[in-house]
């Protein structure tokens, strides 16, 4: 699990990550926390990521192919969405993981 900030200048920065994430991707916690989550994304996703977060928080489900998510029935306030994504591990390989988006107050 990775928790990402959604406010101001820290938008997209990792607030916390669990041991399973560290083991799966090969990163030490100090190499992920307080850094933008885009550092573990392929370039073609990372360029759009902060706009994607803002649009998700605004409930704009039609932006950046959000229709690819499998559970968007209550997209917007207090919603959850899921998708398979491909972060990059420390060896440069793409990993297939389940992404669940849920805004936290």
Nutshell version of this structure?
This protein has three helices and four strands. With 105 residues, it is α+β, with helices and mostly antiparallel strands.
Folded structure, characterized:
This protein is α+β, with helices and mostly antiparallel strands and 105 residues long. It has a single domain (2-101), classed as Beta-Lactamase. Helices cover 20% and strands 16% of the residues. It contains 3 helices and 4 strands. It has helices at residues 19-25, 43-46, 49-58; strands spanning 2-4, 14-17, 81-85, 97-101. The strands form 2 sheets. It has a two-stranded antiparallel sheet with strand order 1-2. The protein has a two-stranded antiparallel ribbon with strand order 3-4. The protein is globular and about 35 Å long. 9% of the residues are buried. Mean pLDDT is 77; it is low at 61-76.
Query: Helicity range of the residues?
Result: 10-25%
In CATH terms, what is the architecture?
2-Layer Sandwich
Shape: globular
- The CATH topology corresponds to Beta-Lactamase
**First CA to last CA: what distance?**
17 Å
Give the low-confidence spans: 61-76
- Average pLDDT works out at 77
Going by CATH, the homologous superfamily would be PAS domain
How are strands sequenced across the largest beta sheet? 1-2
Q: Main sheet?
A: 2 strands, antiparallel
Q: Look at the helices and sheets and give the structural class.
A: alpha+beta
């Amino acid at each position: 699990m990775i928790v990402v900030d959604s406010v101001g200048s820290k938008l997209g920065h990792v607030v916390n990550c669990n041991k399973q994430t560290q083991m799966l991707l090969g990163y030490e916690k100090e190499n992920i926390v307080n850094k933008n989550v885009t550092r573990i994304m392929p370039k073609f996703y990372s360029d759009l990521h902060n706009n994607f977060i803002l649009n998700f928080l605004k409930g704009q489900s039609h932006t950046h192919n959000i229709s690819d998510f499998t559970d968007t029935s209550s997209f917007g306030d207090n919603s959850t969405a899921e998708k398979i994504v491909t972060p990059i591990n420390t060896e440069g390989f793409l990993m297939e993981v389940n992404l669940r988006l849920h805004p936290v107050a």
